[in-house]
Amino acid sequence: MSEQRNTSEGQAAKRELVITRIFDAPRELVWQAWTDPKQLVKWWGPKNFTAPVAKIDLRVGGKYLYCMRSPEGDDYWSTGIYREVIPPERLVCTDSFADADGNVVPASHYGLGEDFPLEMQVTITFEDVAGKTKMTLKHVGLPESMSDMTNTGWNESFDKLAESLK
Amino acid sequence: MSLPAISKHLKVLERAGLIARGREAQWRPSRLEAGRLKEVADWLEHYRRFWDESFDRLDAHLRELQAQQKQQHRKQTREKKHVRTKKHL
């Protein structure tokens, strides 16, 4: 019992963000906007950003790779693996910063905080509310021990080692 | 708030790494770990902006998409009507 309580209390400083929005559109349309790369590039990224690349392999275990470009021309790549794909209700995927080849990189690669988690998880649910869509997004930073992509860092180190031995 | 309640709250903050606590006799001085708080705040600020602004664009995209669909639908209905009128003639 106390073990369980410790876990939940210990996660108080965990990065967790929940955003809810209502879109005046049927949820099939909102689902497509998330899962069709041709549509995703039209909205992915903050104001004045563009999204030159979106690749989506929409199945459990499938990967995605997105690129967004800032007004200054800086590219930010992100990647992840789909964990749950239940159209048009629920989409769960991991989320990490990446390079252009889809390798996971730490946030510091883009000048963001050293302490950003290497792997995050995004859960999006779509609910039909009288023809409109209530979308809830939950974005959670995963502790490194839970990440199955942390070995990328090692791979990079080994690449460098191999390079230096040439 | 009761003393045991305060003590419990401090314990939670300590486990979360948001405060550090020492021990002097029966006193346990607490110190705010501002660095940890800032890291969490940076993360939240980064992603709140990212999602909020992306969803503003998603909203605009969905509106445009539906306006286009409506227009297309109207055009098709008009064309159908046109064909029907032609048949009549």
Structure description:
The complex is a heterodimer of chains A (166) and B (89). With 166 residues, chain A is of the alpha+beta class. Helix content of chain A is 22%, strand content 38%. Chain A has one domain (14-165): Alpha-D-Glucose-1,6-Bisphosphate, Chain A, domain 4, CATH 3.30.530.20. Chain A contains four helices and seven strands. Chain A is globular and about 65 Å long. Chain B has helices at 3-15, 34-88; strands spanning 19-21, 30-32. Chain B contains two helices and two strands; from the N terminus they run αββα. With 89 residues, chain B is mainly alpha-helical. Chain B is rod-shaped and about 105 Å long. Chain B folds into two domains: 1-32, no CATH class; 34-89. Chain A binds chain B through residues 6, 9-13, 15, 17, 19, 21, 23-25, 29-30, 33, 39, 42-47, 112-113, 115-116, 135, 137, 139, 141, and chain B through 11-13, 15-18, 36, 39-40, 42-44, 46-63, 65-66.
Write down the domain tally of chain B: 2
Structural class of chain A: alpha+beta
Tell me the span between the first and last alpha carbons of chain A. Answer: 55 Å
Largest sheet properties of chain A: 7 strands, antiparallel
Spell the H/E element sequence of chain A: HEHHEEEEEEH
Low-pLDDT runs of chain A: 1-12, 145-154
Mean pLDDT of chain B: 85
Based on the structure, what is the oligomeric state of the protein chains? heterodimer
Provide the helix percentage of chain A.
Answer: 10-25%
How are helices and strands ordered from N to C of chain B?
HEEH
Number of domains of chain A: 1
Strand order across the largest sheet of chain B: 1-2
At the fourth CATH level, what is the homologous superfamily of chain A? Answer: START domain
The whole-angstrom Rg of chain A is 18 Å
Cα(first) to Cα(last) distance of chain B is 87 Å
